[in-house]
From TrEMBL:
InterPro entries: Adenyl_kin_sub (IPR006259), Adenylat/UMP-CMP_kin (IPR000850), Adenylat_kinase_CS (IPR033690), Adenylate_kinase_lid-dom (IPR007862), P-loop_NTPase (IPR027417). This is adenylate kinase. Keywords: Kinase, Nucleotide-binding, Transferase. It catalyses: AMP + ATP = 2 ADP. Belongs to the adenylate kinase family. Catalyzes the reversible transfer of the terminal phosphate group between ATP and AMP. Plays an important role in cellular energy homeostasis and in adenine nucleotide metabolism. GO terms for biological process: purine nucleotide metabolic process. It comes from Eleusine coracana subsp. coracana. Its EC number is 2.7.4.3. One of its GO terms (molecular function) is AMP kinase activity. Residues 151-186 form the Adenylate kinase active site lid domain.
Amino acid sequence: MASPTAANLEDVPSLDLMHELLRRMKCSSKPDKRLILIGPSASPLSSAFLFLAPTGDMLRAAVAAKTPLGIKAKEAMDKGELVSDDLVVGIIDEAMKKPSCQKGFILDGFPRTVVQAQKLDEMLENKGTKIGKVLNFAIDDAILEERITGRWIHPSSGRSYHTKFAPPKVPGVDDVTGEPLIQRKDDTAEVLKSRLEAFHRQTEPVIDYYAKKGLVANLHAEKPPKEVTAEVQKVLS
C-alpha cells in the first residue's frame, strides 16, 4: 500500500489506514540496524524494518533517475569503465536519505574490497553513524559448487529445480509444462570458479578488516535455510 497523503487521505479505506498506522508504529519501535552481507554467493535477507540494498540495484536506480551521480556512473559505464568507489559510495549516501532507509539498511554486494570498506566507513562516520554488524555467510567452495551448478530453471515461469535437492520429475523437463529447463550462464562451474577466485582475493580481506572492529558474525551457510535464518535472528536479537 502506498503511503496516504493529505490530499487523498479521505479516499483511503479505514482498514487500510489502520494497517498503515500499525505498520508505522511497529517500525518506529525497531532499533536502527546497518548491516553488510558477505559471502561467495548471494544470501538474501529481508525484514520489515530494513531496506535490502543490492548495490547493483541502487546503481541502476540512480542511472534511471538521472541523478547527478547516476549520470556520472552512466558515462563511465558507456565507456566500458568501472564505476569508481567514490561514485558508488555517493550513490549509497543518496539512497540512505530515502524513508525506506531511515531505520537501517542491508548492503549486499558492497563493499567488495578493503578500500571500498574504508570509504564506506568514512562516509557513515561523517553522518555520525556506522555499520552495526557484518554477516559472513561462510560456506566451503565444494559445497557451494554443488549447490549452484546443480540449479536449473524454467525460463518463462521462473520455477527452479536442483539436480540433487529438488529434481524435476523428468530430468531436464519442467514438471508443469513439460518444456525444457535451462541453466543460467552464471551457474556454470567455470563462472563460479572465477567468482570464487575474486572473492578469496578481494573480499576475504574485507572480512578481516571488519573482524578487527569486532563486527563480524560467522554464519554456517551450508546448513538448511531454516537453521541459517535462526542463526541470523540470534545474531540480530
